[in-house]
Protein: 6-phosphogluconolactonase
Amino acid sequence: MASTFVYIACAGGGAVDTLSLDAVSGRLELVSRAEGLPKVTALTLDPAGTLYAGVNGEPRRTVALALDPASGAASPAGVREVPATTCFLSLRPDREVLFSASYHEGLMAAYAVPGPDGSAGPVTEYRSGPNTHSAVPSPDGRFVYAASLGADRISWFPIDSGTAGGGVVRPAGHVDAAPGSGPRFLRHSADGRRVYVSHERTGTVDVYARDAGTGALELMQRTSAVEGLDLEPGPIRSPRTPDPGPGVVWCADLRLTPDERFVYVTERSTSTIAAFSVAHDGRLSFLRRTETEAQPRGIGIDPSGSWLLACGERSGHVTSYAIGQDGRLDPVGRAETAAGPLWIECWRPARAD
Structure:
């Protein structure tokens, strides 16, 4: 039996697909599909066995999916309506509160995880900036960071875990990204000392040092995931420009391997993945670029750090890659998904000894 399951949010198909990932070969196989989730666009995982899905069909809602450790199947276990569309979901480290980002409404929201009884509770909202694209708590649970693509700004908010609705009230500070860069997704190192940010419009990747006490970010490095691709800076995407075209930068996801040796960034216009090595101080060095599924909005890395998964919004498939000791990606498996796959999470169930 597979030791790892892969969950893919498929917005076009209104479903979350479950695939098995063979721990030895990297082979993928579709095992089940949770349907009735129109315009599902974001996932976040509680390793204890719950997957949360942001669903943008009416009514807008967050759905809790219970995961079966034997089959990997995801089944509804709770739901709550939310005030805005969801493009990013994350879980507070205590696993009691969700943070969501809303691109079109330009806000961040915090609210208790949905329970089986359908209880809602309060929602805390903050206007975190136009085109807010991610909201990510620090590993220590003291701050949550919101990236505003439209304002070229990253803000941080203290979290009061004793406050209803997530405890987010007002920002403690912010840092400006390069004008016109469009900060999109950010990820923390496991120790919380470094923050990595992908920029949708210019393809830059910023590395920040983080002060654990104040939450403040200080730029350490600015590098590029698109150098040599001959692309122009992209526009701010809107309903009028859903696809900016093949000649402009359109970066998306950023992921670190569990051992934090490598960082990978997707670029949708060229359907490629850029690989970087990570130095001891957190700085990045570009390694190589790999062609992948058409329009790769989402990637995921399994908990062992052996496999990277990339899905293509336009291909309707997901490919698994073996991650080499030098960061090289070698394709080893491929599977069909429901339409419009765009977000990937990986789960390795805890095994009883």
Remarks:
- The longest strand covers residues 74-81.
